[in-house]
Write a structure and sequence with these properties.
Elements lengths: L3 E2 L6 H12 L18 H13 L2 H8 L3 E7 L2 E8 L6 E5 L20 E5 L16 H15 L5 E5 L2 H12 L4 E6 L20 H13 L2 H8 L1 H4 L6 H15 L6 H14 L2 H13 L12 E9 L9 H7 E8 L7 H4 L1 H11 L1
Parallel strand pairs: 4-5, 4-6, 6-7, 7-8, 8-9
Antiparallel strand pairs: 1-2, 2-3, 3-5
Length: 358
């Protein structure tokens, strides 16, 4: 397998087409248009749409191309990855989730100066166009392992992940414990999706237990749609305002106020220009179609040294006792600020945790 150097560029007509579509947006008129209680606020989305329409994609393109990018096929699936080479340093595989791309690590990369860094787009996301059905988080773990070992030639590597990237990272550590040197996650979760027992929550963790329960009751509808009707949602690729509103609502609801506007715009550009919104949503459906099967019966489930940084505004949290039982937990830090998008919201704090652990 041979990776080819990739220069990221899109035709100017695709950029102009986006601007024209945004200018022609037909805005919804609802009794709750100004509120976030039932979805994306119309005034806030109008402001974002104007910022997007007047934003210069070429600035983002230049920032992306300041790094080395590569593309190769693994098992017939194209995989794009950003690579920061540092000979002799521990390789760290950085795995994003939804609604993110590899560029969610842009603010984190400069702070990890003593590690070799590999940040791929998951299959169906961004610059890794989906080639076939049947690729969920389990299959993605095998593709990522092939990237690190067969394509890049590493005998040992560490891995960090959030959102779906956390589950891919956990599966890598579970199934390839002889190769994965260390695991770090900011959204630890059981690989079989079985919720941890309620009695594992400590008294001081009750606010986080309540937040997780509230999210499961009020913020989970998107998950069901993406897991069951991704084809219908894929039609959002025809409207940048609709696509933007779907992603913007999650960024607003899941972050702790530290998600910069320019990062959101870069993310929206990548989803729009690559046309991968539908295939990224499909990752949910594919990941739920094949139940997880353990590679071993031993305890803990993940026997690789593990670090966890628990951010207060993360939606889906688990008790510390669960982490102690499920992983070979070596470091656990309850962070003072931050939400679901830790690499974007708190890059310096997350980098400090990663460097202290690794």
């Amino acid at each position: 397998m041979r990776a080819e150097r990739l220069e990221i560029a899109f035709p100017d007509q695709a950029v102009e087409d986006l601007r024209e579509r945004l200018a022609r947006t037909r805005w919804p008129a609802t009794p709750t248009a100004g509120s976030w209680d039932e979805g994306t606020s119309v005034p806030a989305m109008q402001e974002l749409a104007w910022a997007w329409e007047t934003d210069d994609w070429h600035d983002h393109q230049a920032a992306l191309n300041a790094y080395e990018h590569y593309s190769l096929e693994l098992g017939g699936q194209p995989i794009h990855y950003l690579h920061v080479r540092r000979e002799g340093e521990l390789p760290l595989l950085l795995l994003h989730g939804w609604p993110s791309t590899h560029w969610d690590f842009a603010r984190l990369l400069p702070h990890l100066d003593r590690l070799e860094l590999v940040a791929p787009d998951l299959p169906g996301f961004g610059l890794s166009p989906l080639a076939r059905t049947g690729i969920g988080f389990l299959e993605t773990a095998e593709l990522m392992h092939a990237l690190m070992t067969e394509a890049l030639g590493h005998e040992r590597y560490a891995v960090y992940g959030f959102d779906w990237g956390a589950l891919v990272a956990e599966q890598l550590a579970h199934a390839h414990e002889d190769t994965v040197a260390a695991l770090h996650v900011t959204m630890p979760f059981p690989l079989d999706f079985a919720p941890p027992a309620q009695e594992l929550w400590a008294a001081e963790e009750q606010p986080f237990a309540e937040r997780t329960m509230q999210w499961a009751q009020e913020g989970f509808a998107y998950f069901q749609l993406q897991a069951t009707r991704p084809q219908t949602l894929a039609y959002l690729t025809d409207s940048p305002a609709a696509l933007g509103a779907w992603i913007f609502e999650k960024v607003h609801a899941w972050s702790d106020g530290g998600y910069p506007r320019e990062q959101l715009l870069a993310n929206l550009w990548l989803y729009w220009l690559t046309g991968t919104f539908g295939t990224a949503a499909r990752f949910y459906a594919e990941s739920l179609r094949r139940p997880w099967q353990p590679a071993h019966d031993g305890a803990p489930v993940v026997r690789v040294p593990t670090g966890v940084a628990a951010f207060p505004k993360e939606n889906s949290q688990v008790p510390r006792r669960f982490c102690e039982e499920y992983f070979d937990l070596r470091r656990y830090t309850r962070m003072p600020h931050g939400g679901h998008f830790a690499p974007v919201e708190e890059p310096e704090a997350l980098a400090a945790e990663l460097l202290a652990f690794l």
